[in-house]
Amino acid sequence: MLKQLEAERERGLLHAHPFLYWRGVAIVQYWSSFEQLERFARDPSASHLESWKRFNRAVGAGGSLGIWHETYVVAAGQYECVYDSMPRFGLALAGAHAPAVGAKETAKRRLGLKGEPAVPTYENPTDA
Q1: pTM confidence score
Q2: 4, 17, 48, 91: which could join 81 in a potential S-S bond, CB 3.0 to 4.6 Å?
Q3: What mean pLDDT is reported for the chain?
């Protein structure tokens, strides 16, 4: 499924991040829109649909395997992710990256509101 989505970017997947956690395996996906996600999920020509049907027939509601699925619809400009001295991760991989300085220095400013920094910006110290 992910190979198909990476090859066919027009379907709307922005980024997918598979990872292991204490309960098992997970994949976090970022999509351009809910409509594109829904269209792909129900597309009979999509590579995952037949596997999904087989899985449901084999596992059903027996409780032997759990599924964690959450969907959030977030309006453009109504989210933020801040990364300091680390590589892009999560939502930052799905969108643009900009320094958090000046008009982008506080969460309020980044969301288009007024707000002064709780801690003033400092110049990077030099090695003395």
Answers
A1: 0.72
A2: 91
A3: 82
